[in-house]
Specification:
Layout: H1 2-19, H2 66-78, H3 80-101, E1 106-118, E2 123-135, H4 143-209, H5 215-249, H6 262-265, H7 290-293, H8 295-316, E3 321-323, E4 326-332, E5 339-346, E6 349-351, H9 359-425, H10 431-466, H11 490-497
Antiparallel strand pairs: 1-2, 2-4, 3-6, 4-5
Helix pairs in contact: 2-4, 3-4, 4-5, 4-8, 4-10, 5-10, 8-9, 9-10
């Protein structure tokens, strides 16, 4: 018997060697493409920008409007997108547990009873029985190990995607709050302008009745009044839409409210007469630092790791699989009541696929294609990250320049309105000059307001582009997978920049 088994084993080994399936599993590299970024690379004109600090992980608190911080933290606590991302992380962790279980022996138990009836002998027997079945996958080629590696990368990917969702929720809430505050302030500007237009219409009416101005002036005044009323209605619509967006981002049912007061949204009474502004300068890092700061890049990297491991799983499926099944059977012997061990087996089962129509080879090709796709996604994500940082830098610089210019124009426009009013009342100029002055002054004030709002939005975009957000609470991301990425360290980033 032993000689026959040995001969069978040698024949199987010769067959496998002849088929060429005993070679090592080829797992592709999981190194992400970095576009040639080096330690010396810097973003343009950012040498004076500070390095990120711990306070930048909660950047919404760096703005001078506490209402913005309140709304962002409400969104981080209640946003439905974060609950979905947390559940997806739990699912990935469950898949990791299942992948690890595949590498361990499985043990199943069976309980039963046999009833025997022989009428000719008058026998009625009830024979209980039990069995234990053991199965072990030897994992000759590391396919199960690669499956566990892929699942572990999936957990890390979901952890980083949860961080990316937190960053997106914070950014959306901050933008909606800035838009709401801007629309609210725009309404105030337009309400003031509406009062001036009504007064101008009254003055024009008096002059027309006195024969000092033509009827055309009154029609022009009515036209200007209607234009301001339309702009005021549009500003109100923007304010209401932004308020609804804020409520939804915070996980609340949107309500039709005229204002978001302290009892509804934590708006401070002294919110100020300008949009939120960042206190101090926005931080900046090197392009290379984005690879470990941005959660979307970290998630894309783990997707590449998982795709590479999946190639190993598909490659291992081409090779023979060795399993060690066994069983222990307990039952009664004869007519006695005692349960004894009546049988035991332990086998070695070698499974080799001889023909499957190319299905397993196609699975390898598909896995390698997904690996190349993951590398392309990482490269695309990195390019987008670099563009977002550059766009944020340009937007911040442009907003600062526009604020200074629009403030000067607003001051000059207010002076021009005063002069035009005096000249019109004195009969030294027509209503068209007064209307042009008022319209220009209003446009300059609104443009200055929008420039300040753009500066706030550019600051938000900068923090988003750098990937700065505080970690998710411990309850949202449970047991971390092996080889997890290190947490963000502002001190390490500052040291690296130097």
């Amino acid at each position: 018997m032993n000689g026959a088994a040995r001969r069978a084993g040698l024949a199987a080994a010769a067959l496998l060697a002849g088929c060429g399936v005993l070679g090592p599993v080829q797992v592709p590299a999981a190194d992400p493409p970095t576009l040639g970024l080096t330690e010396a690379d810097r973003f343009e004109a950012t040498a004076a920008a500070p390095s990120p600090g711990e306070q930048d992980l909660r950047w919404w608190r760096r703005f001078d409007d506490p209402g913005l911080a309140d709304w962002v933290e409400r969104a981080l606590a209640e946003a439905p997108s974060l609950a979905r991302a947390a559940e997806q992380l739990q699912q990935a962790q469950a898949q990791l547990v299942a992948a690890r279980a595949q590498r361990r022996p499985t043990l199943d138990a069976q309980l039963g009873a046999d009833a025997r009836l022989r009428r000719d002998r008058g026998e009625r027997l009830l024979a209980p029985r039990a069995a234990l079945a053991l199965d072990v996958d030897v994992d000759l080629w590391g396919g199960l190990a690669q499956a566990e590696r892929s699942a572990a990368a999936g957990v890390l990917r979901q952890q980083h995607l949860l961080q990316a969702s937190r960053l997106a929720a914070a950014g959306l809430a901050a933008r909606a709050y800035v838009e709401w505050r801007t629309a609210l302030l725009d309404e105030a500007l337009l309400a003031d302008a509406l009062g001036l237009q009504r007064e101008a219409l009254r003055v024009v009416g008096v002059r027309v009745e006195a024969g000092l101005s033509p009827l055309l002036d009154r029609e022009r005044a009515r036209t200007e009044l209607a234009a301001v009323e339309a702009a005021l209605a549009a500003a109100g619509e923007r304010r209401r839409r932004a308020a609804a967006a804020l409520q939804v981002l915070a996980g609340q049912r949107p309500r039709a409210v005229d204002d978001l007061r302290a009892g509804d949204a934590g708006r401070p009474a002294d919110a100020g007469s300008t949009p939120p502004a960042l206190a101090g300068a926005a931080p900046m890092v090197r392009p290379l630092d984005l690879l470990r700061l941005r959660p979307d890049l970290l998630a894309a990297e783990q997707a590449l790791v998982a795709a590479a491991a999946a190639v190993g799983v598909a490659e291992a499926a081409l090779r023979p699989q060795l399993r060690l099944p066994g069983s222990l059977v307990f039952g009664t012997v004869g007519a006695g009541p005692a349960i004894e061990l009546v049988g035991a087996t332990l086998a070695a089962l070698l499974e080799l696929n001889l023909a499957d129509g190319g299905a397993r080879g196609a699975a390898v090709d598909a896995a390698r294609s997904r690996w190349r796709e993951a590398a392309a996604v990482y490269r695309e994500t990195l390019l987008q990250a670099l563009q977002q940082v550059q766009d944020a830098i340009s937007a911040s610089r442009g907003a600062a320049e526009r604020i200074a210019a629009r403030e000067r124009a607003a001051v000059a426009g207010a002076a021009a309105v005063e002069q035009a009013q005096a000249l019109y009342r004195a009969g030294l100029s027509g209503f068209l000059d007064l209307a042009d002055a008022q319209r220009s002054a209003l446009d300059n004030r609104r443009d200055a307001l929008q420039a300040r709002a753009d500066a706030a939005l550019a600051a938000v975009a900068t923090f988003e582009a750098l990937g700065l957000v505080d970690p998710a609470p411990a309850g949202a991301s449970a047991q971390a997978a092996p080889a997890a990425q290190p947490a963000f360290s502002p001190a390490a980033t500052a040291s690296a920049r130097r």
